[in-house]
Amino acid sequence: MGQMTAWVSVLTDGAKPPEQVEEPDYFKDLNLAQVVSAVTDGSDPYNLAPLFHARLQDQAAVAYRQDAFRDLGDPKILQAAQAFCDSMEAVGKIVAHSKKVTFARPRQAWLLEAAIRYLSAVETFESSLTSTEPRSKSFATVRSWLHDYTSSARFVSLRTDASTVKKMLDSVRYSVRIKGGRVIVRRYEERPDYAAEVLGTFAKFARSDAHDYRVAFRREVDMNHVEAAIVEMLAKLFSDEFAALEGFSESHASFVDDTAARLDRELRFYLSYLSLARRVSGAGLVFCYPAVRAGSKEVHASDTYDLALAAQLVSNNKPVVTNSFHLGGVERIVVVSGPNQGGKTTFARTFGQLHHLASLGCPVPGSSAALALCDNIFTHFEREEDLSNLTGKLEDDLIRARELLLKATGSSVVIINEIFSSTTFEDARWLSRKVMEKLAQLDALAVVVSFIDELSEFAPSTFSMVSTVDPDDPAVRTFKVQRQKADGKAYASALARRHRLSYNDLVSRLAR
Amino acid sequence: MKAHLLSPDSDVDFTIVKMRWTYSVEGPPLTPRQQALIDDLELGTLFDAMAGGDPVIGEISKRLMLSEVEDPSEILYRQAVLGDCLAHPEVIRDMLAIAVEAIDTESRLWGGMSGRPETVLHRSVEALSNFVVYLKKLRHLADEQASVMTSEGFRALFAELSRELSDDYFRSVEDHLKRLELKDGVLLSARLGPALKGSDYVLRSPEASRLALKERIGLGPRTEYHWDLPPRDEAGGQAISDLADRGVNLVANAAAQSADHIKSFFAALWVELGFYAGCLNLYGALRAKAVTVAMPTPVAWRNAELSWSSLVDPCLALRSDSPVVANDSSDGRRRLVIITGANSGGKSTMLRSVGIAQLMMQAGMFVAASELRACVTSGVFSHFIREEDTTMTSGKFDEELQRMSLLADELRPHALVLFNESFSATNEREGSEIATQIVEALLDSDMSVCFVTHNFTFARHFYESRRDSSLFLRAEREADGRRPFRLIEAEPLPTSFGADIYSRLGGWGVE
User: Fold this and answer.
1) Which of A284, B234, B244, B291 matches a 20 to 30 Å C-alpha distance to A293?
2) Residues B168, B48: one domain?
3) What angle (nearest 5°) sits at the alpha carbon of residue A130, between those of residues A127 and A136?
4) pLDDT tens-digit map of B97-152
5) Is some CB atom of chain A closer than 8 A to the CB atom of B318?
6) DSSP single-letter state for residue A370
7) Distance between B324 CA and the closest CA of chain A, angstroms
8) Could you report the per-residue pLDDT of A114-129, keeping only the tens digit for each?
9) Which residue from B173, B196, B401 is facing A105, i.e. has the nearest CB?
10) Together in a domain, B266 and B368
11) What predicted TM-score, i.e. pTM, was given to this entire model?
12) Residues of chain A neighbouring B397 (CB-CB closer than 8 A)
């Protein structure tokens, strides 16, 4: 090896990346648990969730990952990383499988197969990264590590041995003749293909859509004893080839390098997130790299959306509504009101999700964004259960609110969604004002969803956003949350526009 | 080898399948457009007449009538074949019988096409032997009838039958069928696949091999090893036959596919001849009602021509006991037909007559008129007011727009869109605004429109802006209130149909 590299990681500069096994408290409320499950495909065989739970605490760490994500925007680098991870997964499966095989010769052959795939995974990754121009420190580190590793003696001897043995086995061709209970094995001698002769005779009737009548044979994991007997006969007919295989399996029993295995997992952090992003982007939604600053109060996002909801809507081919927000100057608290089912909760979740995702170093939903690197995120969502006991519910609400407000600091992000709905309006207003007072005092960034719209004029730091309806048809929710409302028009033409049947709409639809 | 009686070079997207004891047509489900055409144009009557009691022919006719041919020369190609059929109906019926019987006898053979490859092979050899019988009959018929058919479609088919199905060919097929019994065991070639499992198995033409003398007496290097199945080793016996199956699999597949291909040939023949048999049935039924039929003249889209003489709605004619009123039009180039006028004045019938004639022409059929010239469209679409909707007005209007929006997703340039009282589930001003925008958009997108409407504002707009490229038809009522069902070419008039309805309902004693 060349120079010693301290610690090779694509996630953190020269150190082990932070991991957090437990889900953060706000994960369920913000539907981030759904996002992680969509990202990790549910079963999470590589245990990526702890990486998605752990927020980064400084801007440089965020930048390290954003740079790596940006590099993966280069299709060549992305493809290289994806191919490497896919191949490593296949290698792992084959190695695991080989350990279960009974007969010795096939077991040796499985190990050889795994080693060949491993070699090609590493070499392909090395050569494809060499032909790219990674800008991130992350991928530059990987590239130089790959360069050193592929020229190491250990790697070279593995390669030489594997290809020699493989070539020998590939050249084996034989024939099997079966008549009654006797199986005769010979070296192969050329004879015509019988099925081709039959097809040729009836070729004049051939159509393109031939049904496949081949019976699908079960793929047995283990060889049966007849196949094993055939292999033993072949081992006599082709003794050099089989001896070479045995030698290989003895000298290269465990061939996967530790760093390679670790990089495989870490790369999946990026790839799995990008794969979700790609799925969502297919529906015309965009992601951006947010400016992330610690202690910043100037936050905004354009054309953003709830990633969990978007993932779900996109897979059902349903449209996703985007929203924008901007907190400038003294503004700290967004008060969201408006008709129910109009997208208020979704808007609140989006605000929280953006801050979590940004602090992982991930690109976030939206066309542009600036977000705060917060010390924590706190959420208070109404709990669906316990509706029978309203007094208990109010008390529970207050306990949770208190806990939250005592822990939150000026660098926190707070999301409060429709609390105190179990009490009288007067009560709720009074309690809510108390909450607002505390939030204003903390100077924390917050989104408060409330039916008490006067809260939006509570302080200079608050402002109002409203979930809107179609101005032409109050029955239709737009799921847009905006600072202003619009006025109504005639019902019929609103419907026509809704169906995209106005002259201009229709002409452009028909022109496709 | 293909029949090509419908088109020199394309195939239909459906085929004939047997379900239990009866045959039916299997293909993609009818599209919403096709289903709407059947309902709106009341095409069921027409398909019944074409079926003439044979549901398969009815189904074939339905699918072909609802799949408009877009190339004028292909329409003429079918018209020529149909001409041969009308002149020699017995030849068509004989050929159709051969195709049907070939498929039916094959379907009655024992054994399945799944399970072990050996079973598949055996069944396929039987099927191939059966088909050979009917291929010979077909060749014979072609030899006899070749001289009487004049259309390009029939001449090509008969020529191909005598060229491809020679006596020599039949001899070589029969020879093959004998060898496929595999009396001498199987010989496979193979390579080492993953984990040393045999792979790339290929069945080879068998040949007995003899070992060199030295090896037989144990002196030379060994080139062959064998292994014998121990007695009572059932698992081993299974493993051996599985291995043999891997080779037989390929040849069984080849034989089965060959049988399928020949079956498809007969099925395609069934479909194509079935369609013409349907046309013959319809011809008979219309003639029995004294309806005039003629081959229409398809013209290229850019000509914009549309005109007719003695045009009737064939479905109405087939259902009616008395003669139906026939309509004429002037000659002209037009993309828009607007039909206005009195209720029950024959407006919808006129609209249906045009739609059905267009479909029949684009299926290569005759039409129920003495003359018809029309552009070849990319497809016929219908948007009719749905009587069954009894929801509140706003919901009904919404439904109309929704249906229009679905149509818009499918429409392509050169489409013909038929509207019947569309966008009337709102007030006249709004209805006319929306309908005008939609129709203007369609016309400007190179489509044509035939619209039955009560909306005077809407009709007037087009009378003023597009009079020269449109045809305005009006349903008249005579002074005594009796309607002639015959439409005249005339400008739209502001009609008050409230009086109509009032009198239809019998009024309530207020004049």
Assistant:
1) A284
2) yes
3) 130
4) 999 999 999 988 877 777 788 889 989 999 999 999 999 999 999 888 888 999 99
5) no
6) E
7) 38
8) 999 999 999 999 999 9
9) B196
10) no
11) 0.58
12) 492, 495
